[in-house]
Amino acid sequence: MPDGASPILEVQGLQTVFRTRGGDIHAVNSVDFHLQPGELLGVVGESGSGKSVTMMSLIGLLPSPPAEVRAGTVRFGGDDLLRMPARQLRDIRGARIGFVFQDPMTSLNPVFPVGFQIMEPLRKHMGLDRAAARRRAQELLELVGIPDAARRLGDFPHQFSGGMRQRVMIAMALACDPEVLIADEPTTALDVTIQAQILELMKDLRERLGMAVIWITHDLGVIAGIADRVMVMYGGQVVEQAPVRALFARPQHPYTRALLQTVPHVTGARAERLKVIEGQPPVLSGPPRACPFRARCAHAFETCARANPARVAVGPDHDAACFWDVDRGAPRHV
Amino acid sequence: MSETAMSDRSPRPLVEIRDLRMHFPIHAGVLRRRVGAVRAVDGVSFDIHEGETLGLVGESGCGKSTCGRAILRLYDITSGSIRIEGDEIGTLGQDALRPRRPRMQMVFQDPQASLNPRMTVARIIGEPLDEHTTLSRAEKRDRIYELMDAVGLNRNFANRYPHQFSGGQRQRIGIARALALNPKFIVCDEPIAALDVSIQAQVVNLLEDLQDRFGLTYLFISHDLSMVRHIADRVAVMYLGRVVELAPRDSLYGAPLHPYTQALLSAVPEPDPDLEASRRHIILKGDVPSPANPPEGCNFCTRCPQAMPICHRIDPEMREPRPGHFAACHLHDPDHIPTAGSTAANDQPQQGE
Hints:
A: alpha/beta, Rossmann fold, 14 strands, about 30% helix, B: alpha/beta, 12 strands, globular, ATP binding (chain A)
């Protein structure tokens, strides 16, 4: 991982609220993170943890209303994406920042051939003419491993299988050589053997193209296989952040620990009984005034109900937002 | 308890499935003529013993859910035999099935879609009691409370509606409904697929507790191979409408015999970066063929990394290379053992097998 270089993307104090009839939902609460050039940052969390909303907020893809990005800065190449005219942001989206979503069928337009859809950003953002865009589109389909690419440019999305559609989505995201690729659960809807194909493709593409990637998932196995660094989200906040090996070897937040213990494995020892995280994820109806995990936490003590813990350094490039020191088994001295 | 379950393997299995087929017709043209069939389940056989959990795994479209539904006779099956406690139900009409339904129940994948949003929890759980029993109102209410306690739902919520519950709690409602009539056999069709990771373990532990307490027998259908390894005693792997491998859990996960099972297991990413860095993933090429038009020979031959010429011609039979461990693959066929190495030189046509 290229350390020391200045980050390609730097997010600070991001706060996103959904205004609903039932009151505000504080989906993202003062989230800070950065992305180094060429690295793959894994973002782990359960539904409602704020992982997708965070990424959608920073590229201005949330519908407003009901969403409202209330605070924060998103530094990308010297600019603040949150304070940029919509037009300029549109030029960055799809060109310098590409994205891939979970369900390719809802992101592809069913009435146009995929070739046309891949060529569109090439002509719009890169100013290629028809013939050049077509050549590039074919190259891209070949790059993501779609056989018989020239012929398949004329096919419609429904003529592709799920795995092939996801490859098309990746080809589209890569069309303009983005510096950053945001992938939101790109393999969750796929079968494991197809997921393995896509993960392999992703590793290969990163080696060849060297782009930085944000990979959102709830699957710790996927993260273990592809991420350089991991950010764990819970209740709209980042609760832990660490290089991938450190996170799995010595998780410091009780939520990360519990999550790692609750998932069964296909190899190694088999637990007779699964460890359980009791209770439910929090309802984010107000700004956080206490630790969002305290109700389900085995280590919660009185401080946890009084204040929301800040992220503190717990190791090299490793921080956790918790008042409890799991190594010492005692409250942390901050 | 578990001791009897272990030694009681000799008596008749609770569920016996033989050569089950479920084909869905394809109609086309102006006259809607039948032009073919989707062979969703195409000759499946297995037993499930009393008190055990049989895991049924495979990728989407392999026919595992159809198989589960066909066994409970939610479909009129194309052919085959389904015996539950020795009682043949494969050919029965819906009227004859009705009195037998209390014995066999189902837990569905999506608790959102399988619970009526206009009914209270008490009515949802009580509906099977209305249909199949003559309990008085008070007896019904007591039974509903008892079921809510059993699945860990607060009795005070009996008059709430499904939307007022979280995904995990809704799945508990679905489980309580399935338990209402004291079934012996429950088909769990992807019961945790729609739930978050931290909630999945809660529901799986509940299913295990209920199995111990009420002596239930499960067919646990899932695409989650790690969860199946946790919950199942034996595991059947399906591919394109067929069971390709069937074995006790540790034998299947420890030493899978079928190349498809091997690829499937190696494709599951493990939550361990050091292990992931050293693990060799078998990457299968291409996609699953259409069940309307399965390939000649072995169903898996189009994607199999070890396919031999014979695999493209002859459909392999189910064999038992290790005691209790079945696989349908020519690699494990004593008549077609490939010569050392991987050349398929001794692939002569063998008649009369």
